[in-house]
Each structure stands twice: as structure tokens, then as C-alpha cells.
Specification:
Order of helices and strands of chain A: EEEEEEEEEEEE
Number of helices of chain B: 0
Largest sheet of chain B: 7 strands, mixed
Helix content of chain B: under 10%
Largest interface: A-B, 31 and 31 residues
Helix content of chain A: under 10%
Structural class of chain A: mainly beta
Strand content of chain A: over 45%
Shape of chain B: globular
Strand content of chain B: over 45%
Distance between the termini of chain A: 41 Å
Oligomer: heterodimer
Largest sheet of chain A: 6 strands, mixed
Chain lengths: 117, 116
């Protein structure tokens, strides 16, 4: 079955420190992978996405993610965290529905990031 | 260019009432998706619609829930006879007409439903 696992429910980092959020997926074919960020009371904003090609993808706000097929992982990284990065981060895989080319997203349970001054 | 609009942002209903959630996709988008986020959980797919058609409703509960996306006007997610377990945040997303698995979905701010 298709699934996404985010093993860390909460992470706290100091401002200026590096960040890595883990994401593992289970999907039979080449996955379409996404990272979204959700600020409190807000909708989801796309940070970056991977479809094919270069396994290191760059996103907005200084984020990047690396696709590792051998580890079924798509970890999100940022070299230096800012206080405004405090939010909840969701990893998702785009799944093809049996009814056709449905871009159904399967989400992980999210990682809540806190940033200490 | 306005983003995905959802209203109301917050909705309070008593058990047994109906909840009606609205979603206006981004301009030029004709594909709409509804997701539900239960407390402490990630988003779960509910239904995928194109104009006047339900394409995939595999995530919809079998009873009390329905969705539509008419030729004119917003997409509507309707929950009849709400129960406390329906309390959640409901998010709508839209994508361009080309659709497909690679299309980015743009999310609205969500409707937070509270059932008393």
C-alpha cells in the first residue's frame, strides 16, 4: 500500500542551526514527492517537489530535499533555520488512482518544528 | 491572482445539523480536491472533482458526505447529520486543467468544522 512516514512528530532547533526533516515513502512505481509547510491556522504551501532527474531539488525559502531511491527517503534540509520557519511540515507522495490520472496526495502525519532563539 | 478560497473559515454545528463547505479554485483551474485533517493527523484524501464530474471519491465516507463542482460556482462539500467525529479541518486544493499526477495542487486556508 502507498504510505508516507514522518518519524519525527516534534523537532526543536536553535535559530541558525541546520535542519533535517525525515520522510520515508512506500510506493510501487517512481514516486512524485512533495514537501508542504503549514503555518498555524493556514493552508498548505508547496516548498518543493520531485518528479525525476536530479535527485537534489531546491525549493523556496532556502529549503532543499534529496531523493534516495535505495532508502525510499525524501528528507528535507535547510542549512540555517530562521525563527519564521517554525511551522508544521508535511511530506506527500502523488499517487495514481485506479480510476486514472488522479493526482491524489498521500500525506505523512507531519513534523512540527519549533525554533529556539 | 487570487489563490484558492474557502468559506467559511470556521463553522460550528450541533449534532444532526448539516454542514456546507465551499471552495473556489484558483482562476483557470478546473480540478478540485478535498482533504480532511483530523486532530494530530495528516491530511487524508476525500474526493477529486472536475467541472460537473466526480472523478474519484474513494476517500469519501459512504454515508452523509457528498461533493459537487457545478459548471458555475464553487465546489461544495456537504456533510449531513454531522457527528462529533466530523470535527476536523477540511482543505480544498485545485490544479490546472491539464491535471495529471505531476500537477501541483494549490491549497486553500481550510474550513475548521466543530461539531458540538
Amino acid at each position: 500500500a502507498q504510505s508516507v512516514t514522518q518519524p519525527d512528530i516534534h523537532i526543536t532547533v536553535s535559530e541558525g542551526a541546520s535542519l533535517e526533516l525525515r520522510c520515508n515513502y512506500s510506493y510501487g512505481a517512481t514516486p512524485y514527492l512533495f514537501w508542504y509547510v503549514q503555518s498555524p491556522g493556514q493552508g498548505l504551501q508547496l516548498l518543493l517537489k520531485y518528479f525525476s532527474g536530479d535527485t537534489l531539488v531546491q525549493g523556496i525559502k532556502g529549503f532543499e530535499a534529496e531523493f534516495k531511491r535505495s532508502q525510499s527517503s525524501f528528507n528535507l534540509r535547510k542549512p540555517s533555520v530562521h525563527w519564521s520557519d517554525a511551522a508544521e511540515y508535511f511530506c506527500a507522495v502523488g499517487a495514481i488512482s485506479r480510476v486514472g490520472a488522479t493526482n491524489k496526495l498521500i500525506f505523512g502525519t507531519g513534523t512540527l518544528l519549533a525554533v529556539q532563539p | 491572482n487570487a489563490g484558492v478560497m474557502q468559506n467559511p473559515r470556521h463553522l460550528v454545528r450541533r449534532r444532526g445539523q448539516e454542514a456546507r463547505l465551499r471552495c473556489s479554485p484558483m482562476k483557470g483551474h478546473s480540478h478540485v480536491y478535498w482533504y480532511r485533517q483530523l486532530p494530530e493527523e495528516g491530511l487524508k484524501f476525500m474526493v477529486y472533482l472536475q467541472k460537473e464530474n466526480i472523478i474519484d471519491e474513494s476517500g469519501m465516507p459512504k454515508e452523509r458526505f457528498s461533493a459537487e463542482f457545478p459548471k458555475e460556482g464553487p465546489s461544495i462539500l456537504r456533510i449531513q447529520q454531522v457527528v462529533r467525529g466530523d470535527s476536523a479541518a477540511y482543505f480544498c486544493a485545485s490544479s490546472p486543467a491539464t491535471g495529471g499526477a505531476k500537477e501541483t495542487q494549490y491549497f486553500g486556508p481550510g474550513t475548521r468544522l466543530l461539531v458540538l
